[in-house]
Amino acid sequence: PDLLIYDVFQAWASELASLIHIPSVLFLCAGVVCRAWSYFYDVNNKGLSSVDGTYPFPAIVLKDYEIKKTAALVQELKKNIPEEVVLSLTKSLEVSSHIVLVKTQREIEGKYIDHFSSCCGKKILAVGPLIELKHDDTKEEEKDENSSHIIEFLNDRGESSVVYVSFGSECFLSEEEREEMAYGLELSNAN
Question: CB atoms < 10 A from the CB of 24, how many?
Answer without folding.
Answer: 22
